[in-house]
Protein 1
Amino acid sequence: MKEKNLAAIDLGTNSFHMLIVKVRSDGTTEPIAKEKESVRLGSGSGEYDEIHQDAMDRGIACLKRFKTLADSHKAEIHAIATSALREALNRDIFLNKAKKETGIKIEVVNGLEEARLIYFGILQGLPVFQKRILMIDIGGGSTELLIGEAGDVLFSQSLKLGAVRLTERFFRKDNIEITDVQKCRFHIESVLLPLIPIINKLKPEIIIGSSGSVTSIGSMILAKRGEKRDRLNGYEFTSQELKSVREELNAANTLKKRMKIPGLEEKRGDIIIGGSLVLEEIFNQFNLKKLMISDYALREGIIYDIIKNWKRYEKSNLHGLDNIRAKAIRSIANLYPQGKDHAEQVTHLSLRLYDELSSLHGYGVHEKEFLEAAASLHQIGLAISHSAYHKHSYYIIRNSEQMVGFSNAEIELIALIARYHRKSMPKPKHEEFKVLSGEEQNLVRRLAAILKIADAMNRSQKKIISDLEISIQDKIVVLSLKTLKKSDPHLELYAIEENKDLFEDAYGKTLKVLIGENSKQ
């Protein structure tokens, strides 16, 4: 199948979002562009039974801009509308106007379908497919709750508890009083109370939050911690930290005061009280202790759902969501397709070495994943330049938005393992290396040493080494290599000799190489 560009538009009550991706023939995606505009489609509409003319005009103007950008990338557009249009009695006027003036056909989905798509979006960004999760998505008009496991929806409920909706109802005046907060809290509690037995019965293992209110709270907590992060995906905060933010928001009873709170986005200052109260009450009523943030939500779910349902993909190699890490690695590896064969051989040899050396390094499956990822991407820097490409590999791995499924700490380790597969050994003066703990430094050194030897074992890039065995004799590690018949492994032997320094330093043993033909061929 030929590559194709897709654009997913999420028409929310507060903001419109668009994600444009390139869909490759193997089902992986590459982000091309992201756009977000605060439209406030539901603003001023009271009970959301009508989209006001000014809100309608803002929405159409935004869609025109989105359409222009999508067309510039020749992207097929899929638009989904949620709470505001779901409830508006005059929604057909907006839908027809959008189709006539922009050419965009908008699908209005119910709350359960919205929750399902958000769930699929989350599963693409966090490795929680096999976990039973409670998903909390606090939008402008509604809050979606869902309990899912292994891609199955066990429970889902759409609640009319959105940040904009609650602001319109309880916080219309600028000077917010504690009685207003209390009234809003009682209202939220009354909506949540019937759900407590269901949540308790299903016993979710992990709590995951998505969309603007949750990420805004995460940014404020991040600022209070004095930390900096480019992305919040996988970031966790506790119930005590949420309580601290809520106390700070209560003290900032005017918009001007709230705008001084570090980490709070300017366009969310007027609706954060309502959104944060919803999250706090969910924590209180369901007795939650901590929450993990997902940067992935409805628009990513739309993209996945489209790909999944394309008939042309029915017989393709589209990865399951339980394998999002492999899918992420495959997406990044596509940046340097001419290195695919070498990367696969080096990965194979790295994992064979890892298994043979298990009694020496003592690591498990988790660390093996780091090595596999680093080996698959160790030469990705060649997409930039051959000069210092190992450093370019580090940069790409460390900063790629496609490294989903891994935490920031895991990404850093993988990037460093790839970085040290050639040239100098890790040194205390290297900024990225010296900030690691002693245990992490040892891990990087030992896994990078394996990768360095594996890369040397395919120096000719002819896959001459067909198998290997390791035997450990006191202070010597004997590496016995099996080669293809009538092959000449002199380049591989030379490369191993030149690159064994890190291995011998990391493992404290001398590396000796033996070679022979594979008799099974």
Protein 2
Amino acid sequence: MPIPQNILSVARPKNTVVIAYGKDKNLYAVRQRIGCRNDNGRHLPINGPTIGHIIDGVYVPIDTSAPVSVSASPIDLKDWANIILCDRLFAGIQQELFSVYSKSDAMKIYCISILRVCDHGIRDYELKEAYETSFLSELYPGIALSKNTVSTFLNDLGKAVSKIVRFMRNRTAVVAMDHHLLIDGTLKSDESKVNSLSDFSRKARTKGTRDISVLYAFDLEEMEPVCSKCFPGNMLDATAYKEFISENRITKGIIVGDKGFPESAAHDYFEANPDLHYLNPVKRNSKLIGRHHMLDFTGILSGYEGITFRKEKCTGTDKWLYSFRDSTKAGKEERDWLRRAKKNKTYSLEALREKQQTFGTIVLECDLDLPAETAYKAYDERWQIEVVMRYYKSACEFDETHVQDDYSVIGSEFCDFLSTLLTFRLLKAFDKACLLEERTYKKIMSILTRAKKARLDGEEWKLIRITPSHEELLQKLELIPKPEEPPKKKPGRPKGSKNKSVIKEQISVPAEGKRKRGRPKGSKNKPKNVDPTAGMS
């Protein structure tokens, strides 16, 4: 509803704007213009505080001498350390976002991702308050994160899925040829009945909930996620495998998967991209194992204790098989098998002998002729992707979607991917500072949250008082400067010592002859003359 002309014509201070409010929009406030922002080439004004009202056709300024209500007062205590550290580690992602999104959209994505890391389990309707009470509002002011704004934005973000794919492709394009990409998936609860991604998965019988499937690619050398994608919860990993690597244009590197990602599921794609290689385990009932006698081990793996191996080239194909047997794991698997057989009363000597051949064994297939030690080490490091999934669900608390339709799920999962990326950059920073040896990730983040800054009486922001142990943690992360150490003392007597003059005197006095025995001549203690007749009767 437009503001009447007679209201707009009322004399008021310059650089102000009239805002209608109230149930019937018949009340008029005068707000100050405090600046403008650039939105795709458009200069949009930024409204500041309310400085007065128009009442009965007259401008009435607000009495500035009266105390301001606490609801209208500025926030003078904000989270500082966690935001500053996250921004330092994550600022480089802004340029990646700017290459795909407008500046305003990119900064919304950036701030949402940081807030989801700094405040685990935060809901979308809580983002605005978290933004205003953190130093993020000081670093990047004017970011709109209200409940309705975020809800609409995530929906629009998911609708523009081609931009998300372009962002992921830009990241996979810079992966080095010799890097190992670990691929795995996880299930995420989604009880929505209005989207096509939510469905009953293979674990629905135990969980009792619908899920969506999220696939991740993790760069082992860089120790951070590269790309991700959402799939329906009832889709097998092998079915989604080819679409995942082809859509994200993973065309180089070595993909290290598990048995759920067989090479046969994306055989054509691997042949079309000669710089892309694979290293996968084969099932224990595979015919390749018996055909090439892979359980007849021919050597002991150097650098490892109690591991034997065999390496064979598949006939007719450019594929090599690597088999390994860990004696420690073999003993554990045999004990577990005997325990189950005793409990279920299914023990038989024939079954035990058949199983003993495969206890503690693993057979890998690869299209590269690698040393056995290299192949084993590459697959042995695959547990890192399990760490990614664990942090994704527990540390970041991304075990549920908390949104409804397809578009919002896709948009929210994109922000979750960026939050996971930031989480692993934090882990690398904590590990570099040797903090994870004594504290967990969550404990360190809790300490960073306590390091706030306050602004009193209009002064500059100052760090509040914290414990010495917390100060030491901030110093290790280079958030505050370390105290200057006193210079080390040189060995020997310090320069300017009190003994200096005595030494000089001793040196300047000439050496005399050896003193004679007895009391010195002219001594004050010389005995007095005694009358020899005294005391005689």
Protein 3
Amino acid sequence: MPLIPVAGSEHFAQGAEPLQGSAFGDLVLHDVTDAQIDGVDALTYEVVRHRLVAITEEMGDAIKRMSGSVVVTDCNDFGAAIMDERGETVQLGLYNTQLGASLDMAARWTLANRADNPGIRPGDQFLSNDPWVGGGLHQNDVTVLAPVFHDGELFCWTGAVAHQVDLGGVSPGSWSVDGLDVFWESLPTPPVKIVEDGRMRTDVEEMYLRRSRVPKLVGLDLRAKIGANNVARDRIGALIDKYGPDTVKAVMKRMMLDSETRLRNKLRALPDGEWTSIAHQDGGRGGDREIHKIVLTMKKIDDHLVFDFTGTDSQVEGIINCTLAGLRGGILPIVLTMLCPDIPWAPGGIYRCLEIVSEPGTLNNCTFPAGIGKASVSSAWATQNAASETVAAMLHTDPVLSQSAMSVCCGTWDLALLAGVDQRGGGFVTMICDSMAGGFGAKVDGDGVDTGGQNCIPMGRVADVEINEFSFPMLYLWRREEVDSGGPGEFRGGVGASSCFVPHDSPIGGVHLVVSATGKALPQAQGLSGGYPAGTQWDVLMRGTSVQEAFTRGIIPQAFDAIGGEQELMPNHHETNMGPVDVYFTHWQGGGGLGDPLRREPRRVSVDVSAGAVSVSAAESVYGVVLDAGGAVDELATEKARARLRSERAGV
């Protein structure tokens, strides 16, 4: 069934560009002159700048302390930012930078469309989960924006955004794996005033929470984000009281100017060029076996980058599309981590160095009402993979800047979502965030970090096994790093890992399972400069196992053979129930390799084998390294094996 266009939907896609003009209802915007920006002395600039950085960290601490969701408290799947009076991002927190990448869009949209009606006033806060507006990548990413006033003038904005475990839709967790369009999913809500004059609007809160299967948990997260904005307002107010509004604003403007200037200087030091990458996704919904591609040609021209997505496939029926917010969320984390590790993270300045070319109606710039329920870890993530490959290739042209590059990190997110009745008799829904421990890509001077995390979430964490078991009706058989999961290369990609668990202690016996994990038909963590990609993802559901009998004997099974039962290889998108003796195994990806694996030092391969990162068979067949019975390198056999592999490559 084709998507039916919805008239007027373009109204909700206005926040990508900086606002023009100065008339926004009866609002008066606080601003400073160029002379005031230039007039801030170096010491004051650094003190105030670092205080603004600290405020975003305090916002993050406030969210974590008030939230009750493991996704937030233990996995750090949230973002926080400070924006200037026009919504340009001054400082982005070190949490999920994908989420923070579009807070500016939401602030600009709110300023342009809410100043007249219902008005923007001191003590107000606005809630939104509409990815066409910005502020998040899919509907589960809920943003709360707060205008900060000083002496009656709109001084700046603060924003807090976090993944909510369920906001309605056909399937638990709002991951409707069989969905065709957005109407199968959680309702996208453009900015609505949730706090007015410092007081929660109960009518809006109840309308928002009514959609969720876990309203109390989502309500607690709502208060956490409101509280984070309150913390930021108070801290910014104290900063203004100490240094004056003009000085603080001048520092904000200079932070963005500084980031822009330093990034332009870095780009000028690199040769102009053009680099291309194609990122694939296998399956847009349940039953879809097609391969969908995102094409990126990145051009470096003097002091700016052009990200041209011409050739990307059209949006599809399913849940994998993303809006322009997701596209920006795929680019910014790579630019921040690879190009700006030594530059202040002020996206308002960094975006000035970037140009995006993308046709509306495509996979990573979809139009309403395309399905976007999995946008954050589908098309946005694939966009990030493509950006990672092209930016890293560009950096490899410079011997110094190349040290900031790495191959593609964990190529996709292996989603396993559980729902049902927990061990305390209450309803629950949760995303298992074990995939947060993905493998990092290899670098020019070393291996990728094994289970190092996700490069788009610098402070991402994986929840302790005990936290998950305490919070949800599940019991782990193992969570461990997996052999041969990192991409082979002269420098190896960091390995990924797996988890294996069984429902445990639920009053109804089992749990509901939603699976949404691409990267099974083809690898998605590409290598660089001859490095191989990381292994593909795979998930297995084992039915009718003997795990309970093993428990009664005091044994925790550590391998499939010991678990028994009938194995079901999971497709990319699937929804089912797990019984009390069913076991689920999820295996996520590592990072891509860098350089020809035949150039890897044989001694390092031997160490990898002894550490369980590389198997003996892969050591010989991929790296051309032959080990003796004691695990030491057989140098003569290795020399012959590598010569044979090179001949096979040449077709000799």
Protein 4
Amino acid sequence: MTEMMELPERESMEFDVVIVGAGPAGLSAAIRIKQLAEEAGEDISVVVLEKGSEVGAHILSGAVIDPAALTRLIPDWKEDDSCPLKVAVKKDRFRLLGSTGGMSIPGLLMPPFMNNHGNYIISLGNLCRWLAEKAEGMGVEIYPGFAAAELLYDEDGALRGVATGDMGIDKDGQPKDTYMRGMELLGKYTLIGEGVRGSLAKQLIAKYSLDKDCDVPKFGIGIKEIWDVDPAKHQEGLVEHSFGWPLDNSTGGGSFIYHMENNQVAVGLVVYLNYKNPYLSPFEEFQRFKTHPLVKDVFAGGKRVAYGARCIAEGGYQSVPRLSFPGGALVGCAAGFINVARIKGIHNAMDSGMLAASALVDALKAGRANDDLVAFEESWRKSPIGKDLVKVRNVKPLWSKFGLFVGVGLGGLDMWLNQLFGFSPFGTMKHGKTDAQSTLPASQCKPIDYPKPDGVLTFDRLSSVYLSGANHEEDQPCHLVVKDEALQKSSEHDVYGGLSARFCPAGVYEWVEDDANPGQMNYVINAANCVHCKTCDIKDPNGNITWTVPEGGGGPTYPNM
């Protein structure tokens, strides 16, 4: 907005509780608040804001769910025919892959909690849609298509709510005919459940120094497709995980193949973002993975029907920041409760929402408002969340320090010792560098020559983005903010080989030679392609790119991801 324009005053709405994000954490919190309110004979008003065009539109996960938290939230979910947990895991495989083959890892070598018996293959988007229906049936107001863009504080510095972004602003910051001022949603408490590397959570962590006593955050990028496969090749309930090829010994990550219902298969690759080589492309590594001799046959004669990508909070137990602050709390992936070894986090996200709800309702019943929900912060380590994460806290640091073969072996030993004796010879290891700091200069690394896509099994970025349903209003301010254009050229391009063009799974960033000035490289940002994965906000070597929310409703439109 220009200084000449006088902004109209925002309208406001008041609630007892404001929740940002209609993911599993936010919706579980909303439902549990209503359950506890009914038990206490209280009327507690709850609103949920969701930046996606609909609930589930921005939700992406593998996903195999441990239903323990869902059972705690909705004990009779199995009796509800509309519940989307339909495919129980029937067979579970782990493999170590080489370039031409692989070897199975016997389940007996892994601790019992790594077993997927009793878990379900799901679409997390569909689960969130179902939870949203439950929440609305209990009186929760859910507003999809409205992005929480600004944090609002009271005179004492406590969070008092959020404001949605203004709509109808052109790319130069001027109001269009469709201009609509954002709205303030004020609450006695505000829960931030906007997912991994959310723009509001980043600000809150910085303002209240929520990360002063925890390790650095760590992330991975997960890239996923859904395929309609030949029924003869479909094995409903089969879960396959692998590590190794196409990634090298020093690059962490792994793959998944989940046989869903209706002859559909979800396939994906997770690449840890602490990889060193700036020439590495997570998107291209995923395409290569599908060509492996033990993988490609599943997709022969099939059709790719969906694509998406999203970052994963992988820091685990030692990287969780303080959850509570004056006026609210972080829940779900905004805090980071993924169990990296189990490749699961939905159950912990849901449990975090329920724990926050319990502390919040107790506070409201006591007549409190906009203070620190200390009880929530003090409860999570003793809860199922803490017990789940503490046993695997060293898996990622060991892999990062010692590489694939030694690191995974030591990680397995560490998990067994934690499982059997509650003890680790490594204590609690540190992660060390941030993912951005882990990248080496291009001059120290070897370029990677990726094969061209065949359009049948492997694909390019643009056709993939099309399948994501990504859509943004073209004439709006760019939501991907480069703080220093000169630094981007002198460092990200000149020193790190323009790695943003490779780490982005949606073709958002390009270095293009200027036609009028040969040799001059211009940085082009195709913001309309963005699938909101947040990789740029994490992996840029200088922290020079900030992801912010675009107009509400913009972004991917995932069907059943």
